[in-house]
Amino acid sequence: MKYISTRGAAPILSFEEAMLSGLARDGGLYLPESIPTLSHGDIAALSGLPYEEIAFRIMRPFIGETFTDDEFAEIIAKAYAGFGHDARAPLVQLAENHFLLELFHGPTLAFKDFAMQLIGQLFEASLKRSGNRVTIVGATSGDTGSAAIEAFRGLEAVDVFILYPHGRVSEVQRRQMTTPSESNVHTLAMDGHFDDCQARVKDMFNDFDFRDGVRLAGVNSINWARVLAQVVYYFSSAVSLGAPHRKVSFTVPTGNFGDIFAGYIAKRMGLPIEQLVVATNQNDILHRCLATGDYRPDGVIPSISPSMDIQVSSNFERALFYAYGGDGAAISALMDELKEGGFKVSQGAREALSETFNSGRVSEEDTLATIRNTFARTGELLCPHSAVGVQVANAQRIGHTPMITLATAHPAKFPDAVKSASGVHPALPPRMADLFDRDERVTRIGNDLGAIETLIRERIAL
Ligand SMILES: Cc1ncc(COP(=O)(O)O)c(C=O)c1O
Ligand SMILES: N[C@@H](CCOP(=O)(O)O)C(=O)O
């Protein structure tokens, strides 16, 4: 299996190379040259299998020669061993034909653990074999950072630097990132918002002296391996509701478009998905773009679902690549226009996107009301991101096709919003009960590429 860039002008790579490099050298994102499909029978055969076995069958064709079957099976087993639920991604029924896919039973209580725990194992195995070291740099609005730190803390061949927007993550998220004491973990609180953090990470990838000098690697969802690992739970949940014999739809709380793009890949692999619904908070650029074709970031507004406070949505580039028929030059031109303020999606590409994607936006008040009402009706305590998803799904007027809404984080990561909506203070799991007593270690830094690169060079030279 080979990987190509969405902008068509970067070297073609193997799975291992694409995983270790993150962003392509032409600024694009890697995608498989072709998408393997599963037959009706292959999908039906997934029903009732353990999550790890489904993960193996879905991801194996994308991995190529990088790992043997035995090695890959062992990597998957280790990745999910620390999850706090036997099903890994259990489904809970909220209403007739509306289900919640709980993706928050991993070590850091967010869906990011599904990919990050796997990537941690994949990096470790690959770097052990090659004897190389890498410097991972990631941007986070709260959850990617804690998941990455958890997956890479203490690994000898890796230094991990996480940039988060100072003052714009929840206290639990911040403490998850600032309390690990391992010397290979470097948490940086940057001035600005998430888009600024992500822009500086991309700048570092586009500064080839720096990139090659520190052996830069990325674990944001610009990394194809992140997306791939998330494809699995679309299959596991859909087959448990009767796929491939019946269709399913998904509503996905969305920011960087990585999670919902994994659903798109599942659909292209043959999973009968009727609709993929993008659910946004007031940072609604994706909702506006799907409705009007206009993609024009206009500033990040802080919200009670801070992990979705994103306006430059990296993985939308991958969806556009397919909507433009794989035309890398067209994508490159759009991304140049984005640097100047925004772009208009062509009519043909809009039609292609609307064949799969639908969207909705939720206000702050409706997010709180959804937490309150869902708790009162079902006893399920939603985090504010999951509540955005549930509210958008409810507005779709769910019919005969089951709707699965992704619950992307545990309510205890956002106790203030959850308590104000429901009156209940969501407790952290016992293994995290002392999170607020642990010492914090964080470096404040400006939104300044030179200063960040200097800090990274100095830290890894120690
Ligand atoms: C809790 C939570 N929900 C939803 C999202 C949005 O996911 P994506 O960025 O893959 O669209 C994020 C961040 O990515 C998140 O942390
Ligand atoms: N919501 C994310 C933002 C980064 O997204 P990623 O999926 O591209 O890593 C976060 O919580 O950090």
TrEMBL record:
UniProt key word Transmembrane: no
Keyword tags: Amino-acid biosynthesis, Lyase, Pyridoxal phosphate, Threonine biosynthesis
EC number(s) recorded for this UniProt protein: 4.2.3.1
CDD domains: Thr-synth_2 (cd01560)
Pfam family, one: PALP
Keyword Amino-acid biosynthesis (UniProt): yes
Cofactor: pyridoxal 5'-phosphate
Domain Tryptophan synthase beta chain-like PALP: 99-332
Xref: SUPFAM superfamilies: Tryptophan synthase beta subunit-like PLP-dependent enzymes
Residue positions, PTM N6-(pyridoxal phosphate)lysine: 112
Reaction(s) the record says it catalyses: O-phospho-L-homoserine + H2O = L-threonine + phosphate
Sequence ranges assigned to domain Threonine synthase N-terminal in this UniProt record: 2-80
GO biological process: threonine biosynthetic process
UniProt cross-references to PROSITE patterns, sorted A to Z: DEHYDRATASE_SER_THR
GO molecular function, one term: threonine synthase activity
Pathway where it operates: Amino-acid biosynthesis; L-threonine biosynthesis; L-threonine from L-aspartate: step 5/5
Family (UniProt): Belongs to the threonine synthase family.
Name this protein carries in UniProt: Threonine synthase
Species name: Litorivita pollutaquae
